[in-house]
Each structure stands twice: as C-alpha cells, then as structure tokens.
Amino acid sequence: MTPAASVTHPPLSRLAATRPDVTARSFVRRAGTRIVDGTGAPALERGVGIGTWLLPEGYMWGFRPAGRPGAGIPAQSPREIEALFTDLVGPERAAAFWTRWRASFFTEADVAEIAAQGFDHVRLPINSRIVMDDSGAFRSDGFALVDACIEWCRAHGLHVVLDLHGAPGGQTGTNIDDSPRGRPELFTDPRYRDLTVALWAELARRYSGEPVVAAYDLLNEPLPNSYAAAHAGDLVSLYRDLTATIRAIDPDHLIMYEGLHWASDVSIFTEVWDANSAIQFHRYWAPPDRAGIARYLEVRDRLGLPIYMGEGGENGTDWLAAAFGLYTAHGIGWNFWTWKKIDNPHSPAVVVPPTGWDAVSGYAAGTHERPEPDAAWATLLALVEAVRLPNCTWHGEVIAALLHRTPVTLPAYAFAGAGAGERSIVSSTAAESADAADEPWADDPVTIRYTGGEPHVNPFAADPAERARAGTFAAHLRAGDRVDYDLHVAEPAAGAGGSPETTVTLRTGRVTPSGITPTAAPPTGPAASGTLAVRLGGVTVPGAWFGTTWRGSTPTVPGPTTLRIGVEDGAVDLIEIAVR
Question: How many C-beta neighbours within 10 Å does residue 499 have?
Fold first, then answer.
C-alpha cells in the first residue's frame, strides 16, 4: 500500500457556517503545499465552476452531434452555437439573446446561493472573445461581466479563480476552447500566442490589487490527445512567458498551471516556475481511489507545491460522494463542474427546457425541420427566463454528496478511514489503522468487493444508463473491521417540532456463489447479519436489523461529525449508508 499522507497533508477544514469578509483576508497564496489566505486560513477548499455563462458548451444545452454525416447544424462550440441562433432568428435577435442570456444565466442570486450552500469560491471560465476582439482590442462590455462576478463574490464572501477557458486561437483544438478551426493554433500561430500574452497582461493589470480574485488559471486543459506530444515544449515555454509577464505587473496573485491531456498529465512539471503557484488537475469518470490520484500526490510532494482539483463532476451522486470525499481527506481543494445546465441532473441547478426547445435542439441534431424564426425567437426568450435560478429545478442531492451533508446517501466505498481516505476500488483492499486509544479497532484491511453487472461496463461512467448495467460495490467487513464516514449534520428545518433525531440506515447484501445480492428494501422482521457497533460523533447509535437492512437513530447534534461503523461479530457486506 502507498503510505497514508495524513500526517503531512491533513484533510480540508470543516465546513464553515459563516466566513469573514473576503477583502479583509487579503491575497490567496501558497503556504508550503497548502493554499491559504492572507490570514493563514485555508482557502480554495470547495468551489463550483460557472460553465457555459461566458463560454457555452453544447452538451450543457442538450445539443448532441448529428446522428449521420451532413445532417443538422453543428452546435458544440460557442462559435457553432452562435451560428445556429443567427441562422434561426437573424443576427440582430441573436445578439439581443446573448445580452439577455448573460444577464440572466448567472447573477448575484446564484452567488448568494453558492455561498449559502457552504462553498468558498467560484471558478470563472472566460472565453477570450468575450473580453478581446480579433484585433486584440479589449472589450469593456466583457470585462464588465467579470467585474460583476467579482463584486457579487465580494458581497457574499467568496473568492474567484479566473480561468482562461478559451485562449486566442484555441489551446485544445476541440469545441471546449472555441478554436476557430478545430486546432490548437495558440501553439502554431505566433499572433495568437502574442494575443494570449497580452490578454494575461491586461488581466494582471486590471486585477493586481484585487484580493477577491484568488488565482490566475492560465490555460484550461491544454493540448489533449496527440497534440500533447507535439507541443508539450511549447506549452512549457508559454507558461514561463506568461508567468514572467504577470509577475512584472502583479507580484501577489497565485498562479495555477494545468497539465497536458485534459489537465490529467502532470509530466511537464519538473521544477517550480514560480514560488506562489499551484498545480491544477481535472478528473472525470475514473475510480475514486487513492491510486487514481497518486500521480498528483507525487508531484505535490516532489515539488512542494499545492495541488487543486479544478474540474470534476458530470456523474452520479455515489461517485461524487466518493471522489470529492477523497480530495477532502487528502487536503486537496476542489472545484465542482458545473453549477447549472439545461435538462441535466448532474448539476445542482437544472434548467427546465421551455416549450419549443425540442424543436431547436432537434434542428441542430438533424431530427427536426427548421423552426419558424418567430417561434424560435419565442423559445429563446423563454429560455432566458428559464435559466434564472428561481426557475430552475433544484437538485440538492448533488451538493449533499459533494459536502457529505445530511440528508445524504453514501456508497460504502466512500469511507474516509482513519484520516487518510485510503481505499482502493475493484476487489482490492484499503488499509485502515486505529486512531483512537479508547477504541482498539483492528487494523486489518477492508476489502472492497465488486460483483455482478455486465462485462466491460464502466461503473463510474457519466451515463446513468451505463452505470445501471454495472455491478455492485460493497465493503466486506469482518469482526474487528470498521470504516469511518465524514459527515456534516444539517441544522433541523425551521419549525420542526419535537426533538430532532438523525437516522442511520445501512443497506447490506448477502454473499452468494454468484456474488453479492443487494437488498433494495428491508423485508418484514429482523434477521441479523452480523453484530454492528455504529457511532455518530462518538455516541452509540442504537438500532436493529430488518432483513439485510440495519436502522438506528440518535438525537441530532448539528455540525461536522464522523459516522463509524464497526463489526463486532460475524461479517457484513456494506453497500450503502443513508443518513437522514
């Protein structure tokens, strides 16, 4: 097993109900391998990305590529979406739509809700065309949007990470950077390189004295796929030049560097380029275990720089609870992608498509005839209203999973263990060690079993239909084993009568020759499957078995706590934990 990192890198701080004035905290900076504010308090621990506000991406709008070549209208990149709307309603109406969209999709109401939910920062993706025209002239209307975000965050105690998501010419060669020709021309055309350097000089000039801005994220997910090998050296050279340009203007702000291939490859980071910097990585659809983040922990330890998980999400709540709990346990600040999308349950705020939206998206996909211009315009105006936060459908279970805040349902493999979050997925083991002198729990490994399901199915896929075909994970606990789950027990709802209680429900399975047989609901009557010791915040939770489900309750004590589940006798295959 890889040694636990809990001594050197303690977990993130507990969720705070309130936070001090963001401006008074001065500039966010590096302190060894941690990110802190000017007072030395932890910073950039839990955030959300504001995708598709200043750089629209087709999948967030429900646009899908055409089913056959030549059908439909491409609508994946910002340029393509803009062209689609111009085709539908004409240039004047299309321009009016984008003005209204940016005034509605993300507002102070969104920032207030983000802060109220317990996050401490937002990551703001910026398309260079919003703040700079093709000639290199800066656009005051675009910078006004960035400034508005900063002011809203100041008012609600949040920091802002400025993320150049779409650099001039494109840094990825894919739809997510708005590259004009589907190639990373930032690295092949000197003009685009010069524009990028000039843009970061302007950003540094504008925000050099602004402590609400936490960090400069120089390039989002540069050089994926085959481009990585061809231009890795060019990326390093550009990072060095951007660093020098920024530092000539702004000595204070934290600089973030992302690696190659969707910010997953950190091989270019062989030395420290700036003393006040951090390395950002992104992670989707991968096993949420320590082995999967080992390369990032290694670069943190080798260079002595903080690491920051800048994008992850687009998945079910089981995966979110495990993956983001893993980052929290390892002291890695994170940012969830993304706050709001159209008709996509993977975000906290989900936009309900207005009447007529299926005709617009169907036309783009080549399955519908072109809507009449007036009908399309009415749909776009309705969309402007639908994207406002009060009109969205709220998916609180997403945030509950990210923050482990009750009411929440956690997969058994989302345990934090004895402070290190150490676990390995798919029929392997996770070392556990005793961490309380008055509770001599055994330190035998805890086996994570994965059984059943169709072959060659990714149990961590983004597509819920694919996940449904996957097998079942269970923590196999024998006598003396225990697992710990970090929780934040929410305050009782206003007006709730009586003495509030927290109920813990454990769903387990029986091991059979064909694997683990999960039980969806408890049958009638008790049928003990092992003797459990369940404790919440150090207090024993009395309970009983109902078939293969264990349920118990204890008086509620709001705030951060630990749920400990141990087996005193027998064996249990623990599948899921619900805390209400």
Answer: 8
Considering only 4-18, 160-174, 299-313, 343-357, which range has the smallest mean pLDDT? Answer: 4-18
CB-neighbour burial class of residue 190 (10 A; exposed 0-12, middle 13-18, buried 19+)? exposed
The number of angstroms, rounded, from the C-alpha of 205 to the middle of its chain's C-alpha atoms is: 30
What does the alpha-carbon distance between residue 259 and residue 280 come to, in Å, rounded to a whole number? Answer: 7
Torsion angle, alpha carbons of 331, 333, 338, 340, to 10:
100
Residue 181 DSSP code: T
With contact defined as beta carbons under 8 Å apart, do 315 and 462 qualify? yes
The β-bridge partners of 401 are: none
Please measure the distance between the N-terminal and C-terminal CA atoms of the chain and give it in whole angstroms. 34
**H/E stretch holding 295:** helix 290-303
In this structure, the number of other CB atoms found within 10 A of the CB of residue 273 comes to: 17
Assign 431 a pLDDT band (cuts: 50, 70, 90).
very low
- Per-residue confidence band for 5, with pLDDT thresholds at 50, 70 and 90: very low
> Cα angle at 164 between 37 and 105, to 5 degrees?
90
CA trace torsion 127, 131, 136, 137 (10° rounding): 170
Say how many residues make up the chain.
580
User: Is residue 419 over pLDDT 50?
Assistant: no
Residue 47 pLDDT exceeds 80? yes
Strands 571-579 and 408-411: antiparallel
Residue 44 contacts residue 13 (beta carbons within 8 Å): no
Q: How far apart are CA 530 and CA 546, in angstroms?
A: 12
Helices (H), 525-576: none
pLDDT tens, position by position, 22-36: 999 899 999 999 999
Helix (H) or strand (E) segment spanning residue 429: strand 428-430
Lookup: tokens for 323:
């993956």
SS3 of 96-132: the string is HHHHHHHHHCCCHHHHHHHHHCCCCEEEEEEEHHHHE
* Alpha-helical segments (H) within 421-532: 464-468
Distance from the Cα of residue 113 to its chain's centroid: 17
Half-sphere exposure of 542 (CA within 13 A, CB side): 2
Assign 159 to helix, strand or coil.
strand
C-alpha–C-alpha distance, residues 522 and 71, integer Å: 50
Reply yes or no on whether the pLDDT at 546 is more than 90: yes
Q: Which residues of 412-447 are buried (b: 16+ CB within 10 A; e: fewer)?
A: bbbbbbbbbbbbbbeebebbbeeeeeeeebeeebbb
Structural tokens at position 404: 């482990």
Q: Are 426 and 474 in contact (CB under 8 A)?
A: no
Give residue for tokens 């007036």: 374
How high is the mean pLDDT of the chain? Answer: 90
| Single-letter amino acid code for the residue at 575 | I
Spatial contact of 246 and 200, defined as CB atoms under 8 Å apart = yes
- Pick the closest to residue 283 from 272, 271, 292, 273 (CA basis): 292
